[in-house]
Amino acid sequence: MPQQLIFTNDVADALSEALGSISPSSTFIITDTNVESLVLPLLRAESPETVRARKIVTRPGDVNKNLDSLSRIWSDLVAGGANRRSAVVCLGGGVVTDMGGFAAATFKRGIPFINIPTTLLAAVDAAVGGKTGINFEDLKNEVGAFCNADAVIISTRFFRTLPTRELLSGYAEMIKHGLLTGPDTFNRLLAFDILNATPDELLPLLEQSVMVKKQIVDEDPTEHGLRKALNLGHTPAHAFESLALEQGHPVPHGFAVAWGLVVDLILSHMMLKFPSDALHRLAAFVAEHYGAPSITCDDYPALLRLMHHDKKNTDGNIRFTLLSEPGAVKLDDTATEEQITAALDILRDLLHA
Amino acid sequence: MPQQLIFTNDVADALSEALGSISPSSTFIITDTNVESLVLPLLRAESPETVRARKIVTRPGDVNKNLDSLSRIWSDLVAGGANRRSAVVCLGGGVVTDMGGFAAATFKRGIPFINIPTTLLAAVDAAVGGKTGINFEDLKNEVGAFCNADAVIISTRFFRTLPTRELLSGYAEMIKHGLLTGPDTFNRLLAFDILNATPDELLPLLEQSVMVKKQIVDEDPTEHGLRKALNLGHTPAHAFESLALEQGHPVPHGFAVAWGLVVDLILSHMMLKFPSDALHRLAAFVAEHYGAPSITCDDYPALLRLMHHDKKNTDGNIRFTLLSEPGAVKLDDTATEEQITAALDILRDLLHA
């Protein structure tokens, strides 16, 4: 079932309509303590459905996207008398939409759910496309399901409360979508002033970006082919993210993605002659907004180990999504350890690390 | 995706073919300690794939179909280096196929799995149709997913090791399918000597029975309509089962189903004029093979409470699947507490309880 996406800054109205078409016997809002204090009051002021709904509040952060939190959500659904015709509204960032979506997808073998992402990253990535799940034994998204939300309501209104680095984190995924689309979109995104844009300026750009993902996901919901395009930047990104976590100074997902995009474009340049000027413009944008990963060549073996562990690998090779130019994707490419090492050297040089 | 069902007493060959078409990077066998000692050696003697596969052995019994066991299975998959192209073989009764199937359906958001039911009940019911899951907070199948096995290999060979009451337990579900099919099949089943049949005599009858379920499930995989037909007998059955559990003398699922079928035919007779002779023949068969539930009228309030809690209820009413005659189904019927109480009185009378 293709997913219904609603782009609007009138969230209460959209939610009312989406719930109306589900017509649930009862409604539950899954959110976290941060969103509960910052965003939920805004929504409740306008939306009577959310006042009547039962709240399930989880602890924030990726570290709490785990089996213990999931189990508590199931418990709260049981305690609240949820039945097969109840509906869930996931209000929050990617942790809430991933975990809340998985809870709904598996409670009584699946009840309807609606995602309302409250971060740019969740809006452009997690909340759309049906990937739900939790981390397990420190492995990211190791347990989960492909299950589309019945509706995703995407608004830029709630991003006002986001810290700058949260906004930038989401913007990295928008740039990824721009790279998958073509040179015009890519250039427009590098020129857009994300840190000073109004909600209404951002909404149409976000809509265009989300639709890139939606088109890919509708064609390949379970990631057997085309959907792998969305992994652009993500093989190195996951390694940067995991290494930073291991070293005790976690970095936002989107920052790791920004660095990972530069690595993948370097590899794309080396292997597929991706144009050097576009690579340099991206690197300059990333250096300005995201800085550089704090790595030295001593970290290369750990990064290679982490890339080998990536879920996308099905044999001994490390797999990458690469581009011959913006908009021209080549899936399932592999790179040697020597090529990856060379790319990391160039990354540090380009980002002045 | 409709599910591939293979009816054969050459299990090793069928498994080899099914695994061949998946071509997994590694294979895991999920089973329980009973099946590991009674059945796995038989299979391993013939099937090299099962010798090479990594074993994951769970504790037997419905009481272990829980989050703790599920979490251990996920852990064992991680420890065994399972990746997205690994495959799982669930070898066992309904607990193993339900829980192992759910583990596979959610590990890395879903890896392929093959069910080999080793009990008649699992062959005729649990292993086919894509319902996977676990119990949660003492609620049966409260958490799970609809996810088809890539193949189900159905053999009657392994049933030799089953205790009589296990065999009868599965046969109750076959009778249910017979009632959904029509008078001829229903009568043939009541005349068949299940306790003395050879594996080769049982296999074609089992195939016919499983195909009844498969046809219904293929038309309505997520139980929004027709699939509810398969709930015949199950509203009272779940109540008998839960009450017996609460009272500390658990009964096999199929025994509860046999008694539940009689209750639903009594209600069918009262409300839809289901023929009284067919009802009496079923009751005689059930009394002879399954005895009667140990209930008195003091248990009626508890039974009604349990029926009210049933997952199938979406409002305050207790829902039943009823028949106007064998083969003629009416879904989503409701009965009043007075009607249910009267039916329980008649049940005890018919079964000489």
Provide structural commentary:
2 copies of one chain form a homodimer. Chain A has helices at residues 11-22, 33-38, 40-46, 48-52, 67-79, 94-106, 120-126, 164-181, 183-191, 199-219, 234-246, 253-272, 276-290, 300-308, 337-350, and strands spanning 4-7, 27-32, 54-58, 87-92, 113-117, 131-136, 139-146, 151-154, 318-325, 328-335. With 353 residues, chain A is α/β, with parallel strands linked by helices. In chain A, the strands form 3 sheets. In chain A, strands 1-8-5-4-2-3 form a 6-stranded parallel beta sheet, sandwiched between helices. In chain A, strand 6 and strand 7 form a beta hairpin. In chain A, helix 8 (164-181) runs antiparallel to helix 9 (183-191) and helix 11 packs across helix 14 (300-308). The first copy, chain A, is globular and about 55 Å long. The A-B interface holds A 25, 67, 71, 74-75, 78, 83-85, 105-110, 131-133, 136-137, 139, 141-146, 222, 311-315 and B 25, 67, 71, 74-75, 78, 83-85, 105-110, 131-133, 136-137, 139, 141-146, 222, 311-315.
